[in-house]
Amino acid sequence: MNGMAIPLIGFAAYSGTGKTTLLVRLIRIFREGGLRVGMVKHAHHNFEIDHPGKDSFELRKAGASQMYICSGTRWALMVEREPGPLDSLQDHINRMDTNNLDLILVEGFKPAVIPKIELYRPALRKPLLFPEDSSIIAVATDSTERLRTELPVLDLNNPEAIAGFISERFLDHHPAATAGNTL
After folding, report:
1. Fewer CB within 10 Å of terminal CB in the chain, N or C?
2. pLDDT tens for each residue of 17-59
3. Among 166, 179, 168, which residue's Cα sits nearest to residue 10?
4. Contacts of 75 (CB under 8 A, 6+ apart)
5. Is residue 75 part of a domain?
6. What is the DSSP string of the chain?
7. Distance between CA atoms of 183 and 35, rounded to whole angstroms?
8. The domain containing residue 157 runs over which residues?
9. In a domain, 139, yes or no
């Protein structure tokens, strides 16, 4: 889908499964391995990156259609737009500085046709996604009981093993993945 040399891996699961918790741990593991990781997260609701009382918030709320805030260590661009069709995952990736990334992780965007790892917790009593989504390449679960699949099954509570799976499958020939890191 992305047509880039940068590996793109999605994580699909129902709310409450632990996607963000796992992704925080994976990002740390990959960063420690020397990789530059980009993250795209889909939000199903309005969200704020700054808070009332902050100058950037007040300026945006006053009517700025684009609010760019920057410092020596970080920058963010908030763009206000009228409600309309959602941008595609590729639209969002195109806005990223992919020249400075080795890997892009995606949370959400379940319908996107990209390689995805499904996170599954039987205790949540939600159906599995992989039988209906051919983009799912592995299932990470906290219980393998009653899980029948030919897909690789990963331990959801072992982010190092999940990082290893991603590294072996997507980063073998990537310069940063072979340049002395421990992945």
Report:
1. N
2. 999 999 999 999 999 999 999 999 987 777 777 788 888 888 8
3. 166
4. 68, 69
5. no
6. ---SSS-EEEEE--TTS-HHHHHHHHHHHHHHTT--EEEEE--SS---SS-TTSHHHHHHHTT-SEEEEE-SS-EEEEE---S-SPPPHHHHHHTS-GGG-SEEEEES-TTS-S-EEEEE-GGG----STTT-TTEEEEEES--TT---SS-EEETT-HHHHHHHHHHHHSTT-HHHHSS---
7. 10
8. 8-47+86-178
9. yes
Q: What is the CATH number of the domain that holds 39?
A: 3.40.50.300
Total domains in the fold of the chain: 1
Angle, CA of 3, 40 and 132, to the nearest 5°: 75
User: What's the pTM value of the predicted model, to 2 decimals?
Assistant: 0.85
Note whether residue 31 is domain-resident. Answer: yes
- Residue 39 in any domain: the answer is yes
96 contact partners, CB below 8 Å, separation of at least 6: 38, 40, 104
19: its two tokens: 């996607």
Tokens coding 108: 């959400």
Provide CB contacts within 8 A for 16, sequence distance 6+.
121, 124
Which residues are CB-contacts of 52 (< 8 A; sequence separation ≥ 6)? Answer: 58
